[in-house]
Amino acid sequence: MSGKPYFTISRESFEKNAGYKTTVYALAELVDNAFEAEAKKVVIALMVDSNQMLRKIATIDNGDGMNQEILQSAVCEKAGTNFDRQVSSGKKARRKFGKYGVGLPKASLSQCNFFSVWSWLNKPENALKSYIDITDLEWINNGAIVEDPKKEAAPQEWLTIADMANAKSGTLVLWGDLDGLTWSRARWGEHSGLIPNLEFQLGRTYRKMLSGKKPDFEIEVVVLDERFREIEKVKIGPNDPLFITAGCRIPRKKLDDGIFWPQDDPLFDEIIKGTLELEIPLKNGKTTKKSISFAASIARKNTFAQLSGRNAGSLPHGKFADRNLGISLLREGREIDLSLALNNPSEARERWIGAEFDFPHEFDNILGMTNNKQSYTRLEQVIKHKKEDFLEPNETTNACLSRLRKEDPILANCLEIAWKIRDIWEFAWKTHKDMREEFIGQPDGDNGDPDISPEDRAEKFATKADNKGISLPKNLSEEEQKNLKIKIIQELEKQGVPNTVAKQIAARIVEKGLTYIITSRAGLGSPFFSVDHVVDSKILVLNQDHRAHPYLISSISEMENEKLEVLKDRLQKAKTSIMLMLEAWTKLESEAVTSEKRKFQMLREDWGRVLDSFIEEYEKEN
Q1: Where along the chain do its domains lie?
Q2: What is the rounded CA–CA span in Å between residue 294 and residue 289?
Q3: Could you read off the pLDDT of 29-78 as tens digits, one per residue?
Q4: Is the pTM of this model over 0.90?
């Protein structure tokens, strides 16, 4: 029997699903490379066809460029040059983002089947070219050998559209045969497509480098047609999830007098800033001390205040803050992830606090850094647990850490970091709630709170009016709550409820003890709503596909334009839709056969009595 090679080269050897969350995260790998190469500017060029569909994507930078040996290694997986080089050789000594040598090829092949790289050290006409084409089966069958890069001038059209024709040095990466894009269009409406997501995500990932009077570098997005004519150009600005950086591009409501609300800039105030120094183990058995920097912020009063009766959370800046919800985890100033590990899915007010932790690269192994730089996996797991989960009987937290430093030094470091993150997050949340209670003038969570939605209120008052109440056992332990949530999520998923929605519903049932839950989803067929059950809770599911939904629900909840005539028109449509809903019932009841009419009448009478009891509870607090 003949031997068998450890690795077999085939088309499937080139991983298409490399774990990148979206196309933006894949492009971020190429932006990392440009930044490490001391680039002052990187341009992401999007070529679209006559139907505005994306056909090619290029990144062009004016960094140091690569010689033949480095270029050949750069297009080969796990052959990159930044494994151990954590500081660049430039004057500014930029920190290095690269670590695993997989960025350029893995990110590229996750989005396309063919990519080319041109890089030059002295003028674009003297560039070297290398490429990978995983549709070339002959090349793959012959071992997928990457030949020495050949001299070939960088394509002038792409350089011109990026304003890089005179760049002394630089690199151009071109993706063709696109087959893995998250968004097939450069822009689809105002908020969808690749461009809005590039603005939002890259602005947040590289906010430290893009902010200030003299930013470290620029990121620009250019859209062009297949004849290389410019269609649109966008400069990426910083997106600070702590909202403490002045001048960030944040959507605001334009008032009748032309003023944009809220007027504050920045929107949040920094409430704490500091460092955490830890002694961490090295591979040689020794230890070294390294510092982690952190900060937290809370919204200013104007930021979460109501505007003309509208909740701040429903205003443009409130929706924007909701997209930046979480704890920002950075590595060498570059965001790795916006963690939701400590977030309560049913607590909308958490959008008004922010926190960030910035780690040196030496913490990669301790925190479980993934090779595509998208998550600290070990930290994510540890941070979800409270301190008590790791303590032995009658053991203090300090004693626990001392014990673990001997038993498992890496876990001890990770725990100390996770506990610090939890302390900072809880401090920010408490500070915001204290200010909120003082500002609103009533206990947290009551009816006057600007972020309690109509759905939240309806759930609350229906639950109060329900004489049975929820029959969940009282004073459940954390472990019992956790197990009950898992059970609820599993039951809901069997009913076809998406996992994210199921988690939110489970949190509202277990943590708030609600008898009634309101949610929405598509795909329910002809009913305007359906009723599901889980444990002792009733779930009202509104059908997003029904014709009445845009008039009754969307027309009221999604009022981006607050002009009086628009409001009147939407409210008129909503009122008309309610009348039509009642007339639809009238039709069913009046046309029912005699034996069924009494059932309709009894249902109508029972519905009226239940509605009366619900309204009675609502009126007690209004």
Answers
A1: 11-235, 253-440, 454-620
A2: 17
A3: 999 999 999 999 999 999 999 988 999 999 999 999 999 999 999 998 75
A4: no
SS3 state at 414: helix
**415 near 371, Cβ under 8 Å?**
no
Q: Which of 514, 517, 523, 512 shows the shortest CA–CA distance to 502?
A: 517
Q: Which two tokens stand for residue 271?
A: 């409430």
Q: How far apart are CA 229 and CA 48, in angstroms?
A: 10
The total of other beta-carbon atoms located within 10 Å of residue 280's CB is 17
Instruction: Encode pLDDT of 457-516 as tens digits.
Output: 777 777 777 754 444 555 677 788 888 888 888 888 887 776 667 777 888 788 777 778
Q: Which two tokens stand for residue 194?
A: 């690749």
CATH code of the domain made up of 11-235: 3.30.565
144 membership: H or E segment, kind and range: none
Residue 179 has a CB neighbour count (10 Å cut-off) of 11
8-state DSSP, 16 = S
DSSP 526-583: S-SEEEEEETTEEEEEEETTSTTHIIIIIHHH------HHHHHHHHHHHHHHHHHHHH
DSSP assignment of 346-410 equals: T-GGGGGEEEEEEE-GGGHHHHTB-TTSS-BHHHHHHHTS-GGGTPPTT--HHHHHHHHHHH-HH
75: number of Cβ within 10 Å: 21
CA atoms within 13 A on the CB side of 550: 2
Distances (CA, A) of 33 to 30, 99, 101: 5, 11, 11
In sequence order, which ranges of 21-155 are alpha helices (DSSP H)? Answer: 23-36, 68-74, 103-109, 137-141
Cα(196)–Cα(88) distance, rounded to whole angstroms? 31
Q: In what order do the strands lie in the sheet with 41-48?
A: 150-151, 128-133, 112-120, 170-178, 54-61, 41-48, 218-224, 230-235
Other beta carbons less than 10 A from residue 404's beta carbon? 18
Q: Is 588 exposed, middle or buried (0-12, 13-18, 19+ CB in 10 A)?
A: exposed
What is the residue type of 223? Answer: V
* Termini Cα distance of the chain: 84
Q: Are 217 and 40 in contact (CB under 8 A)?
A: yes
At 107 the three-state DSSP class reads helix
